[in-house]
Amino acid sequence: MLNRLVAVAPMLDWTDRHDRYFLRLISPSVLLYSEMVTTGAILYGDRDRFLRFHPAEYPVALQLGGSDPHALAECAKIAEAYGYAEINLNVGCPSDRVQSGQFGACLMATPALVADCVASMRSAVKIPVTVKSRIGIDDLDSYEHLTNFIQVVAKAGCDTFIVHARKAWLTGLSPKENRDIPPLRYDIVHRLKADFPHLTIIINGGLKTIADIEQQLQVVNGVMIGREAYQNPYLLAEIEQRFFNSAYRKPTRYTIVEQMIPYITDELDSGRAYLSNITRHLFGLFQGECGAKQWRRYLSEHAPKRPADAHVVRQALIAVEKIRTTLQEAGC
After folding, report:
1. Do 83 and 196 lie in a common domain?
2. Among candidate residues 142, 137, 219, the one with its CA nearest the CA of residue 186
3. CA distances for 241 relative to 24, 43, 66, 179, 287, angstroms
4. Where are the alpha helices (DSSP H) in 52-169?
5. 11 marked ligand binding residue
6. Does 63 show up as a binding residue in the annotation?
7. Which domain holds residue 293?
8. Which of 30, 31, 128, 247 has the largest count of CB atoms under 10 Å?
9. pTM beyond 0.85, yes or no
């Protein structure tokens, strides 16, 4: 059974395979999710590009975007063969592009269709099938509508729901605004858990600290961290130690970078990536530390140049060390 106590959210353009490899170096135990991948990309695109992942990333869950039960079932089978540990259906993304494809948050208006999608995928694979949703959309934001959605989809065999504790406005707000403007309603998700004690309820939205996580775990089964895990990835080391393994010895940020070097070299030598594809995910590693600005600046200026290699990352570390030494000598 997957440990869903703490997970890193699926984030488009962020939680790609490079980022997941990096995050796994920091925390061996958190559950990692892919970016959302559409059924069309898998069935008609470069399948390997969208689905391959390094064995070191495991366990990884794949988030699928789609609303055709048969296409989703086929993609679920393909993903299971690739080694994914879970299939998650996106019922939370509010973007116009996603809505035009009739999937994402707009599916909250059609719980029977979501149930059909879940049932179809569950019949096709042995790995868990889960749903990530909002607490409501537009004017369909009553608690009664939400509980009806949960009941209908649960009857189709979904026993795990990841709930972003904000509603989504499908008209009038951008995807970015939908991450901040609708107020967080943790109480709604807490009420869900109380009313559906037999279901696994994971809460998502605005969680940033160990204290936040501890507070939520008193009520729900698990938490999902989003932007904070990307912008301050070293938080995952604290999470690993606090929630998974008290004997875990947090690696230093320098050690994590050194462990990334062989991966970076292999990816570049094989032609699978450019350096900047990987280093953009490392910007937040020194968040809140002396030298964080120098680290970000050096990587952003030098990694996009061709033919940049892992030497750039080592030089960025030197830039961090220089500023730290200067500050220490100044008595800071």
Report:
1. yes
2. 219
3. 14, 40, 36, 28, 19
4. 69-82, 96-100, 111-124, 143-155
5. yes
6. yes
7. 253-329
8. 30
9. yes
The verdict on 130 and 238 lying in the same domain is yes
117 catalytic residue (yes or no) = no
Sign of CA dihedral 99, 105, 110, 113: positive
Tokens in use for 291?
A: 């030298």
The answer on 78 and 131 residing in a single domain is yes
Residue 224 labeled ligand binder:
no
Inter-residue contact 135 to 146 (CB < 8 Å): yes
Q: What is the pLDDT of residue 98?
A: 65
| 292 CB neighbour count, 10 Å cutoff | 17
Number of domains within the chain: 2
Write the CA distances from 172 to 94, 96, 166, 169, 278, integer angstroms: 11, 11, 15, 7, 34
Is 1 contained in some domain? no
CA–CA separation, 110 and 172 (whole Å):
21
User: Are the C-beta atoms of residues 220 and 190 closer than 8 Å to each other?
Assistant: yes
The active-site residue out of 75, 93, 117, 158 is: 93
260 labeled binding residue: no
Structure tokens given for 10? 């699926």
- Alpha-carbon gap, residue 199 to 160, rounded angstroms: 6
Give every residue of the chain whose pLDDT is below 50, as ranges.
332
Do β-strands 160-164 and 222-225 pair in parallel, antiparallel, or remain unpaired? unpaired
Round to whole Å and give the CA distance between 123 and 129.
Answer: 10
Burial state string for 128-151 with b = 16 or more CB within 10 A and e = fewer than 16? bbbbbbbbbbbebbeeebbeebbe
Q: Tell me the two tokens of residue 196.
A: 């559906």
User: Is 205 annotated for ligand binding?
Assistant: yes
So what's the pLDDT on residue 58? 97
